[in-house]
Design goal:
heterodimer; A: 107 residues; mainly beta; 4-stranded antiparallel beta sheet; globular
Chain lengths: 107, 119
């Protein structure tokens, strides 16, 4: 099974900050990785697919990069609505696996 | 507009059975896969399994194999997951998600079904 190690597990930041979240795969997954945002009480929403492709309608301050085993989600100039939980997911091989999640909180 | 609409919240007792649904609209239901995801209270997301409604071929997570049964009825664009005997540890939010192929990136999510199992 491919393990996805996501870090940090929590992060405090201020409005206007730039933050980066990392997911490391235990083996190469090409670019078969998506990022999701989940706000409290809501279903997750896809932000990024194919490691770096921005989902339609998602603000351009969100970006993804990486390939193989190391991936990052960056949020430039945090907005109040960005404080949420974020998850990576690999769909390169079965079982599909999620990262443990990152809780982004307001400082 | 692509939509996945899940059945309503459930309150069950241990040992009871449950079948929850996920109805797709706005796309060709039998041409996309459906993923089921569990989120236990205050925890992260877990992949339970994936079903292809076109032929009902299914892949289960080892953690859920034998614990749930996934099915689909493409004639009514609906996927299901069912339990024959619930446990308190099945208390969670369950989501269905559309996926474009066995190895495609999951995209659209249902709103979730909250299951509470308590005596």
């Amino acid at each position: 099974d491919i393990q996805m190690t996501q870090s940090p597990s929590s992060l405090s930041a201020s409005v206007g900050d730039r933050v980066t979240i990392t997911c490391r795969a235990s083996q190469g997954i090409r670019n078969d990785l998506s990022w999701y945002q989940q706000k409290p009480g809501k279903a997750p929403k896809r932000l990024i697919f194919a490691a770096s492709s921005l989902q339609s309608g998602v603000p351009s301050r969100f970006s993804g990069s990486g390939s193989g085993t190391e991936f990052t989600l960056s949020i430039g100039s945090l907005q109040p609505e960005d404080f949420a939980a974020y998850y990576c997911l690999q769909h390169n091989s079965y079982p599909i696996t999620f990262g443990q999640g990152t809780r982004l909180e307001i400082k | 507009e692509v939509q996945l609409v899940q059945s309503g919240a459930e309150v069950k007792k241990p040992g009871e059975s449950l079948k929850m649904s996920c109805k797709g609209s706005g796309y060709s239901f039998s041409s996309y896969w459906i993923v089921w995801v569990r989120q236990m209270p205050g925890k992260g997301l877990e992949w339970m399994g994936t079903i292809y409604p076109g032929d009902s071929d299914t892949r289960y997570s080892p953690s859920f194999q034998g614990q749930v049964t996934m099915s689909a009825d493409k004639s009514i664009s609906t996927a299901y997951v069912q339990w024959s005997s619930l446990k308190a540890s099945d208390t969670a939010m369950y989501y269905c998600v559309r996926q474009s192929g066995w190895y495609g990136p999951p995209d659209y999510w249902g709103q979730g079904t909250l299951v509470t199992v308590s005596s």
